[in-house]
Structure formats: C-alpha cells, structure tokens
Write a structure and sequence with these properties.
The chain is mainly α. The chain has two domains: 126 residues, no CATH class; 41 residues. The protein has nine helices and two strands. α3 crosses α4.
Length: 185
C-alpha cells in the first residue's frame, strides 16, 4: 500500500524544507511535553533524529530505542537494505531527561505507528525528512561522496539519481530567469 504522501501528492518525496520542518518538529515537541503526550513526543523525537542524521525511519526508531535504553548519544544502527553494515546516529542534545522520563516506560511502538503520527502532525512522508537532510548538506557544500557515506548509500549512483533531478531543475530555472533579466536590459 502506498504511503499517504504518495497517494496525496503523487510522489514519495514531498520536497520538504529542512529548516521549516525542523522548526515544526521543535514546536510540536514542546506542545507534547507541555500537554503530557508521550506518544507524540516519541514520534517527534524520532522525526528529529531522522532529519538531523539523514536516517531511514526504521533506523531512527532503532536509534531512539537504543538511546532510551543506554543513554548514549552516539549509537551505531544497522543500515537497512544491507546485511551487516552499521552507521553512526547522533541523538541531539535537545532530547533531554524529561523526554527520557516521559518515553522510557511506554510500550514499544511499531515503526509504522510512529511513521503515521509523524505524517499526521507534520504532513510529510518520513522519507522526505531523509532527503531534506541530504539537500541541507548539499546547500552547505558537502560533496556527494561524503553525503552518500553519511546516509548509508552503498553506491554513489543511488544518491546521484535523487540529487541530479533537483539540481537540473534549479539550474534550468536559474538560466531562464537570467535570460529574462538580460532581455529587460
């Protein structure tokens, strides 16, 4: 069954803006803490880990549960779509003792239920959070091989297929706008 974002927008990647979604996650986290909504807080913490690390949703869930158990902020999570490869996940400092206290005693939730809560409150497909992270790194000038290594793509070509279309579109729009400016001179 296709994800809600695919059904709604006709695409798996909603093209979310890293900074805007990060601000929304932080606002919803504060609301969840204030209103004592631990399940919502857990979902937003997973979204925060996902968008700040470029993880797949299942990797972010694994990271969050390991963090709750161990308290370590730097954790190794298994890269999905591989058998025995692991990558670093760093839990942001804003996830604090209050978060731990509210979430530690909750029964484990499935990746699917966390994905659904994220979609309902952020109105984005969780995989879009991964690509918002990638786009943020591109904006900062990080090279493609480094990004590919960070996000756990086995082949650089995998990342290139996602990035090239977006860059090509931006270049075309920029070119057409510059022609328009030249004509008006």
């Amino acid at each position: 069954m296709p994800s809600p974002a695919r059904r709604q927008k006709g695409t798996w990647d909603a093209g979310v803006n890293f900074d805007q979604v990060l601000r929304r996650i932080m606002k919803i986290r504060e609301y969840a803490k204030t209103m004592k909504r631990p399940r919502l807080l857990r979902a937003m913490n997973v979204a925060l880990i996902q968008i700040t690390n470029g993880l797949r949703i299942s990797e972010a869930v694994e990271c969050y549960y390991k963090f709750l158990l161990r308290g370590d902020r730097e954790l190794e999570v298994r890269v999905r779509k591989t058998k025995d490869k692991y990558r670093l996940c760093v839990v942001p400092d804003v996830i604090d003792a209050t978060d731990i206290a509210m979430n530690r005693k909750l029964p484990p939730a499935s990746t699917s239920s966390i994905r659904t809560l994220i979609y309902l409150h952020l109105n984005v497909n969780t995989h879009s959070l991964r690509y918002a992270f990638i786009n943020k790194l591109l904006e900062k000038g990080v090279d493609l091989p480094t990004i590919s290594k960070i996000v756990g793509h086995r082949k650089l070509e995998t990342l290139l297929t996602y990035v090239q279309e977006k860059r090509a579109r931006a270049e075309l729009l920029d070119l057409v706008k510059s022609v328009g400016r030249e004509v008006r001179r």
